[in-house]
Specification:
It is a single chain. By secondary structure, the chain is α+β, with helices and mostly antiparallel strands. It has a domain of about 80 residues. About 55% of the residues lie in helices and about 15% in strands. The longest helix has about 80 residues. The chain starts with about 20 loop residues before the first helix and ends with a helix.
Length: about 325
């Protein structure tokens, strides 16, 4: 193992690519050539002036004329050389700007493709939940209360379909983010848990929650619920449908902290750098889009997302979102002073 202090020190001028040294080498050669040319000109012209000048006044006139001519000739040469170089530099600059614009457009198209695929992945998740509730409603032995709960869950799934379809439409128009509104985060998280409990991959898991109240945020309820659904599904898939999953939410200063724990095998250290890449998956039948959707929602809410080791033994996904600032009442402000 190589320590940091043992690493070789690379000087700024020590460039591996020899082509990077050509500008300095060319400049040095040009300067040397110019000095040599001027020296030869001065020596030769001075001797010729001494030969052809009949007196000191004529010699002074010749020296003045050859000096003026030298300045004029070199000035004209420098002008054409500088104009040529500047035109080339400007052409290269325009070419670079065009290349950067093309790269930016390609990045936007790639991001739009990733977001569209992630939204399609979320639609598929909501569709699976809706199909489960439709199957429940077909059973005649359901009580009135159970049928009502299934109908309510089905309605929420249909509402999510509409929201996701609107996001796809907005993405096509260049606006991928859903509108934000004041939310109580605890309520939104509990609703997300109710939506995901009946999912086939989650039903065999022990799903627990410890969610604090008074977590006001500005955000998209559909986006937050999609984020939780994807994180819980990701944990359930790692557990292969059997194990413990815990959803925790608490306040930490001016931010809300959401954590999804599981007691599964965790994520290998060598995979942690790639786990949030689009379409990267370790599952044979995975799409690699669930965490892409999570990352997009967190970014849309100006939050932070990180992966850690859970005290339960498995993976811990932690999301931090900014809380909605509250205005202190005059009584509280006076008591603080």
């Amino acid at each position: 193992m190589v320590e940091a202090n043992d690493a070789p020190v690379v000087e700024p001028d020590a460039v591996a690519d020899p082509a990077a040294l050509r500008p300095r080498r060319t400049a040095a050669l040009l300067a040397a050539g110019y000095v040599a040319l001027c020296s030869v000109y001065i020596l030769v012209s001075s001797r010729l002036a001494a030969v052809f000048a009949s007196d000191e006044q004529e010699l002074e006139l010749v020296e003045r004329m050859k000096g003026t001519g030298f300045v004029v000739v070199t000035g004209v040469a420098f002008y054409f050389a500088a104009a040529t170089w500047l035109r080339r530099i400007e052409a290269q600059r325009r070419h670079l700007v065009e290349q950067q614009a093309r790269l930016a457009a390609a990045d936007r198209r790639a991001l739009a493709g990733e977001l569209a695929a992630a939204i399609a992945h979320d639609i598929n998740n909501s569709l699976m939940v809706a199909q489960l509730h439709v199957g429940e409603l077909r059973h005649a032995e359901l009580s009135g209360a159970e049928r009502g709960e299934a109908m309510e869950a089905l309605e929420k799934s249909v509402t999510q379909f509409g929201d996701l379809a609107r996001r796809l439409t907005q993405l096509g128009r260049g606006r991928a983010n859903a509108p934000h509104q004041p939310l109580e985060l605890g309520t939104t998280l509990r609703e997300a848990l109710e939506l995901i409990r009946s999912h086939a991959k989650v039903r065999g898991c022990r799903l627990a929650a410890a969610i604090d109240d008074d977590l006001p945020i500005d955000g998209s309820a559909t986006g937050i619920q999609r984020m939780i659904v994807n994180l819980v599904l990701n944990a359930a898939e790692a557990l292969e449908g059997r194990g413990a999953i815990e959803l925790r939410a608490r306040r930490n200063g001016a931010r809300a902290v959401i954590e999804v724990h599981d007691d599964g095998p965790g994520i290998a250290p060598e995979l942690r750098e790639r786990i949030f890449e689009a379409c990267f998956t370790t599952k044979a039948d995975g799409s690699g889009l669930g965490l892409t959707s999570v990352k997009a929602v967190v970014h849309d809410h100006d939050g932070a997302l990180e992966l850690d080791r859970s005290p339960l033994g498995g993976a811990l996904f932690r999301v931090e979102l900014p809380l909605r600032p509250t205005v202190a009442t005059p009584e509280l402000a006076r008591s603080a002073n």
